């Protein structure tokens, strides 16, 4: 059965979605148009310099503006259908690589080649959807894949072939660096296929930046995809559930009386280091960015964004709050020694799960700001190893220096211990085959929140114990970041009117009580229950935003990533990689729309 036939079954026999015509509510989910037919004639001017027919049938390609991978203005609806397996050949010996401003390639085993690629896709109208979503492990020494839905169209000069573009990312194994790319090729329903042009020219990765591009020989094996109708239906629902987007510049038009200057939003991150930024307000996601070293990334809605330490809040804090909601008393009654087997030392016998979430275990080497975190010992014994036994050995090795709950010391290893404890507790309560990230967070929260399948996987330890890293290793779309933010900020941690997190822990973390947490690096910053807080009433970096103390909860990730939960039902986010973490200028602008100080 072809994808067009499947769509006729899904959306009504009278409508041909993404084909030569459309009628009524074709391609709509909850009233949202998903597959508006392409109106063009296919008359598109291309040369070898922008991936024309001859280039994709040729022997080499160059770096091009990403516009060459985008659906052009005069694109026509496809008459060909893709359903089957795309395989790229000889990847270990083809392609080009150029490091951009960093000097890290020598520390990797094979950074300049794509991993083996053989994956199933299904076309639905003018869209092409990978069957496998989320983080995909590979046999490559350095890279895992993330595949995202792309587009299909036709151009008059492509000799009867349809043209596809598929966004993808390489994510560093056992880490979170994410390098975004697109691949494009020509195909026919009978299995004919051109070579595949691929290009990576942007990333969120502070320490390793590169361009990678090439032209790979390929094969296309048409085949019936199992559960094709379900895959298409799920994808339609995914797209329909995204918050509507507008360019961030439109804030000035939509709120004309505010005097807002959109250019100031995101301005605290260097333009060359920004992946994107945006703000959700009143049901609209205003998005800026998606610029690369070679033009605008053409699939901004599905660009893959690493969490880094946002995972401490998302997987660690929300994880413990959900566990506490289900099994009341766990956060204070259970200790690390009782739930993490390798932590046998007496220094862990009185450290509660909440102490660990607060990074106030009392066990550390130095209380200096990120001294332990940035040490050579942490690098070699924790961040650069990937088995559970290796990571937990380092995490358990710190000695008692102060009473639990009294001193904040930033340790990603502490959040790893928390994740290990949550895994143990959840398995004890629900069964040995259960996984707290997959079965608790994804099933009970992410899916009901309609977050993308990209969030359903997490970087994990390798070997017989495959626990989520918890402190880093998640991947988002910008829509996912907004949904997490609105769940916490606007919806008070409810889904369908049902409270999903422990109310006491949640309210404390959201700065709704008098306890603002332990001082974290500076007087105007606190850390409480896996969330940072900033005092907008502080003038530590110039004029205060608010006349009196106002603590703003936010999440923060390595390199320059932030998700800020403003007390005016706005969610501000930014993703960058030049160690620029500020967001005060953005808050000043957004305060013009609606006060954060009251």
Tell me what the structure shows.
The chain has 598 residues and is α+β, with helices and mostly antiparallel strands. It has 3 domains: 3-233, no CATH class; 245-303 and 496-593, no CATH class; 325-443 and 455-473, no CATH class. 23% of the residues lie in helices and 23% in strands. Strands 3, 4, 5, 6, 7, 8, 9, 10, 11, 12, 13 and 14 form a 12-stranded antiparallel β-sheet that branches. Strands 15-17-16-29-28-27-26-25-24 form a 9-stranded mixed β-sheet, with helices on both faces. The chain has a two-stranded antiparallel ribbon with strand order 1-2. Helix 5 (310-326) packs across helix 12 (436-446) and helix 10 (388-395) packs across helix 11 (412-430). 52% of the residues are buried.
């Amino acid at each position: 059965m072809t994808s067009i036939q499947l769509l006729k079954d899904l959306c009504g026999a009278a409508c041909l979605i993404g084909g030569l015509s459309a009628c009524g509510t074709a391609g709509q989910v909850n009233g949202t148009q998903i597959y508006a037919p392409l109106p063009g004639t296919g008359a598109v001017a291309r040369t070898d310099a922008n991936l024309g027919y001859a280039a994709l049938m040729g022997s080499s390609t160059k770096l091009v503006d990403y516009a060459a991978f985008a659906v052009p203005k005069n694109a026509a609806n496809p008459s060909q259908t893709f359903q089957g397996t795309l395989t790229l050949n000889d990847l270990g010996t083809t392609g080009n690589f150029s490091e951009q401003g960093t000097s890290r390639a020598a520390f990797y085993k094979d950074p300049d080649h794509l991993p083996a690629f053989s994956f199933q896709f299904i076309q639905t109208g003018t869209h092409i959807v990978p069957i496998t979503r989320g983080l995909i492990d590979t046999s490559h020494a350095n890279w895992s894949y993330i595949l995202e839905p792309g587009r299909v169209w036709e151009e008059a000069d492509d000799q009867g072939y349809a043209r596809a573009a598929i966004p993808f990312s390489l994510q560093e194994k056992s880490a979170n660096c994410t390098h975004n790319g697109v691949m494009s090729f020509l195909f026919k329903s009978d299995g004919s296929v051109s070579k595949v042009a691929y290009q990576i020219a942007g990333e969120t990765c502070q320490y390793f930046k590169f361009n990678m591009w090439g032209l790979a020989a390929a094969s296309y094996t048409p085949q019936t995809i199992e559960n094709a109708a379900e895959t298409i239906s799920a994808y339609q629902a995914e797209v329909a559930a995204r918050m509507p987007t507008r360019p961030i510049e439109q804030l000035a038009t939509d709120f004309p009386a505010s005097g807002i200057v959109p250019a100031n939003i995101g301005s605290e991150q260097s333009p060359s280091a920004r992946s994107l930024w945006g703000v959700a307000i009143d049901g609209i996601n205003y998005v800026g960015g998606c610029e690369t070293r070679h033009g605008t990334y053409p699939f901004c809605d599905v660009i893959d964004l690493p969490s880094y330490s946002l995972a401490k809040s998302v997987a660690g804090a929300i994880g413990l709050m959900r566990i506490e909601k289900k099994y009341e008393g766990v956060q204070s009654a259970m200790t690390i020694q009782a739930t993490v087997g390798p932590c046998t030392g007496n220094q862990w016998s009185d450290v509660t799960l909440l102490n660990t979430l607060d990074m106030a275990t009392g066990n550390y080497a130095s209380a200096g700001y990120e001294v332990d975190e940035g040490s050579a010992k942490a690098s070699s014994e924790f961040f650069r190893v990937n088995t559970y036994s290796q990571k937990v050995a380092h995490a358990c090795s710190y000695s008692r220096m102060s009473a639990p709950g009294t001193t904040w010391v930033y340790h990603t290893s502490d959040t790893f211990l928390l994740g290990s404890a949550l895994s143990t507790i959840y398995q004890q309560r629900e069964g040995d085959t259960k996984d707290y990230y997959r079965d608790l967070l994804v099933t009970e929260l992410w899916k009901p929140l309609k977050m993308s399948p990209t969030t359903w996987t997490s970087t994990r330890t390798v070997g017989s114990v495959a626990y989520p890293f918890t402190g880093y290793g998640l991947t988002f779309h910008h829509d996912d970041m907004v949904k997490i933010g609105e769940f916490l900020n606007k919806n008070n941690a409810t889904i369908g009117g049902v409270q999903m997190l422990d109310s006491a822990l949640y309210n404390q973390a959201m700065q709704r009580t008098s306890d603002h947490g332990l001082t974290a690096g500076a007087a105007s910053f606190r850390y409480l229950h896996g969330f940072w807080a900033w005092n907008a009433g502080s003038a530590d970096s110039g004029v205060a935003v608010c006349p009196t103390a106002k603590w703003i909860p936010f999440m923060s990730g390595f390199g320059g990533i932030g998700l800020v939960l403003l007390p005016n039902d706005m969610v501000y986010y930014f993703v960058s990689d030049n160690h620029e973490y500020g967001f005060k200028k953005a808050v000043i602008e957004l305060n013009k729309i609606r006060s954060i100080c009251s």
